[in-house]
Structure formats: structure tokens, C-alpha cells
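Propose amino acids for all 397 sites.
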């Protein structure tokens, strides 16, 4: 995902430095070219050899180190970098950068870098809330630096409070948000439905389906990484929603419809990827339920067809995409839905094909528009999400 990207990872004198080798490892696994710069104080917490082994690049510490191929090292690195992240960032280094002080390799390189910079503060609770530190962070934010705010937890001195550096996986998500994909959806608003709805039968039972939410969540993450403002209307899902998206939790088909109908107007692209129950029991009332020794009888009614409603109530210039899960006549049935529901694109997949449909990390799909069909091989749902948005962008550009 990060092939061809260069990230500078700065490490300062904080006990949280023990987490950073794992962040470097995560980046290199994504084929990122990682250069580590450490302050002298940081070497008291972690040895540079560990980071050189993981990154396969020399760790820079001394501005006047003579053991490198001749160039002005901080300027050369600054030209290469797509992103700089300082994790952990001590109060000392935050103060230096905020006030234009460049007296070591890390701060000098930061001053020479024109790319985006992320700062992840890590320190004692009282230090973090010191008005001077807070003012320096506000100043950095005003200058375009991204702040990865610390979390509340147990700190190095045993106290519990703010100042703990987030997990490496969270910092990685901030990095991916900045540089993983071209921002070709910047300025667009995208609404996506995901997961399975549940229709209550009685206080302990419900009707649902096998949807895990993986496809819808993959679409939401891809749109977010491409710079869109994403709203995810989510039913039950087996996987957590992606970061940096607005999540609206729903349970029933009615709740999902209400959430979509209340939010769809302000969105440019709408993708209905949720598996919504087609039927629900009539208004729940225990007096209407007839029981005998073995059976439970109940009348059912159709739920609102969200995709059809969107097609009939769409705003001008909106792009609407749906999904069609079929057991037979896949392409014919999907194309019929495309026309009848008055939408722009439909993604057809068969539940009977191995590696396709619910409960898989992969899918086999055909993207159908009014004038084209794009048959795709089996691929990861993240890859399919990327291709779907490529096709959408082709249509709206």
C-alpha cells in the first residue's frame, strides 16, 4: 500500500520510544521506505541498531556524522519524504519545533521538510497539560502540523492520566490517511451502508442474514483514504468500522432507512452495501402471537426498499451504487435491479461461487452500469472497493 512512499520517523527522549520499532516494522511490511532520526536522548531508551535492522536504513542522530555518502543529509532526506511522523514527541522537541529552533538532526530536518508532519506527544499528564506545551501544540496545528492526540492510561510513573502515546496501529492509520492514496475524492461527501439488519421476533429472537459488513467497511475506508468525508450507516458487523469516518449505528431495516433518508441529501456518492432484511414482523405485540407446543405464528410485512427509494428521491448530480447478491441469473437480475431502481451502478455477485458473498475476505463481482459490464476475478474486498471507486470516479469526472 505504501510502495514508493518515504516516511521519516522521528524518535525523541520518551519511554514510549519502545513502541516505535513496531511502527517502523508495520511501515516496512507495507513496502514503505522508512528513515529513522533519533535525538541523542532517545538513544537512552532504545538502541539505533534495532531500528536500522528493521528499516534497512542508517539511523541518523548526529548532524555532523561523517559516516555517510556526501550530501547535506537533512536536506536530502527532506526532499525524499512524503511524510514525517514524530512518535513519541517530547515536550522539549515540541517546544523547539514550535519556536523554530533547529539544533540537532531531527529538528533541522523538520525545518527543511515541505511535506506534511504528524506529531504524537507522549509525556507526563501534568507536562502535557502545561499551558506552554498546549500553546506550542496549538501553534504547530496552526502551521499545518497534524497532532495525534495522546490517550488516557497508565503512564511511566504509575499515574493514570493523559499523555500516553496511542498504539502503533492507530498511528499507522494516521499515516495511511495522509499518504496511502491519491486524494481524488477530496471535497466529496460519501454515504455508505454496511452490515446486516436485525428484525425483532420477540424479546430474545430476531431475523437477520450472514452479512459481516466487510465489504461496506472496505468501501468506507477506501473513500476515507481518498480524501472523502464519509458517513457510514452501519447495521450489525463482524468487523470494526474504519477510523476517521462518521458512524451511525442502526439495528433494524427501519432504523437504517431513517438514517439514510435523513442524511442522503448532502452526499455526492451513495453506496448501499448493507444486507437489509426484506421482511419484518408486523408491529410487535405479544397478543398477536399465536403459539402451540411447537410453532410460533406471526404475520410479516415488507421492509422499505432503501435502494429503490434512493433512486426515486435522488438529488441532482448524485451518484448511486447498489449491490446485488444473487443465487441464479446473476447478471440478468442485477441489470434488472439497476434499471428498476433507477441507479447508476450495481455490483453483482453470486452467493454460490466459492470465495464470493458473505463471510469471506474475498469477493467475485461484476460491476454493471447502463452501458458496460466489468467482470472481475476473485480478489480481496479491499481491492474490490478500490476498483469500485475507480469506476465511480471515471463516471463522475
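Proposal:
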Amino acid at each position: 500500500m505504501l510502495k514508493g512512499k518515504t516516511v521519516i520517523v522521528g524518535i525523541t527522549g520518551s519511554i514510549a520510544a519502545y513502541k516505535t520499532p513496531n511502527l517502523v516494522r508495520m511501515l516496512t511490511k507495507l513496502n514503505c521506505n522508512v528513515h529513522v532520526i533519533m535525538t541523542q536522548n532517545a538513544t537512552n531508551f532504545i538502541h539505533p541498531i534495532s531500528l536500522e535492522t528493521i528499516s534497512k536504513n542508517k539511523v541518523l542522530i548526529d548532524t555532523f556524522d561523517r559516516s555517510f555518502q556526501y550530501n547535506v543529509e537533512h536536506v536530502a532526506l527532506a526532499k525524499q519524504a512524503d511524510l514525517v511522523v514524530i512518535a513519541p514527541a517530547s515536550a522539549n522537541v515540541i517546544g523547539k519545533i514550535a519556536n523554530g529552533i533547529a539544533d540537532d538532526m531531527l529538528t533541522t530536518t523538520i525545518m527543511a521538510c515541505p511535506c506534511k508532519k504528524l506529531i504524537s506527544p507522549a509525556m507526563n499528564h501534568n507536562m502535557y497539560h502545561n499551558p506552554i506545551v498546549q500553546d506550542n501544540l496549538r501553534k504547530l496545528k496552526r502551521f499545518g502540523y497534524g497532532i495525534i492526540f495522546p490517550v488516557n492510561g497508565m503512564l511511566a510513573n504509575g499515574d493514570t492520566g493523559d499523555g500516553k502515546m496511542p498504539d502503533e496501529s492507530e498511528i499507522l492509520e494516521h499515516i495511511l490517511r495522509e499518504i496511502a492514496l491519491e486524494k481524488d475524492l477530496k471535497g466529496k461527501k460519501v454515504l455508505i451502508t454496511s452490515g446486516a439488519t436485525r428484525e425483532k421476533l420477540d424479546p430474545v429472537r430476531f431475523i437477520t442474514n450472514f452479512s459481516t459488513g466487510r465489504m461496506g467497511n472496505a468501501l468506507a475506508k477506501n473513500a476515507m483514504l481518498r480524501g472523502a468525508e464519509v458517513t457510514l450507516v452501519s447495521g450489525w458487523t463482524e468487523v470494526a468500522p474504519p477510523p476517521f469516518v462518521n458512524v451511525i449505528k442502526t439495528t433494524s431495516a427501519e432504523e437504517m432507512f431513517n438514517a439514510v433518508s435523513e442524511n442522503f441529501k448532502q452526499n455526492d456518492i451513495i453506496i448501499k452495501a448493507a444486507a437489509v432484511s426484506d421482511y419484518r414482523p408486523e408491529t410487535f405485540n405479544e397478543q398477536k402471537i399465536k403459539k402451540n407446543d411447537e410453532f410460533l405464528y406471526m404475520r410479516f410485512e415488507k421492509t422499505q426498499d432503501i435502494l429503490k427509494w434512493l433512486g426515486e428521491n435522488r438529488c441532482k448530480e448524485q451518484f448511486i451504487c447498489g449491490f446485488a447478491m444473487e443465487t441464479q441469473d446473476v447478471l440478468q437480475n442485477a441489470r434488472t435491479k439497476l434499471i428498476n431502481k433507477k441507479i447508476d451502478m450495481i455490483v453483482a455477485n453470486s452467493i454460490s461461487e466459492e470465495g464470493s458473498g458473505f463471510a469471506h475476505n474475498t469477493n467475485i463481482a461484476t460491476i454493471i452500469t447502463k452501458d458496460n459490464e466489468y467482470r472481475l476475478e476473485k480478489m480481496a474486498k479491499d481491492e474490490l472497493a478500490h476498483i469500485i471507486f475507480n469506476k465511480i470516479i471515471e463516471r463522475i469526472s
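Residues 18 and 207 are 48 Å apart (CA to CA). The chain has a mean pLDDT of 91.
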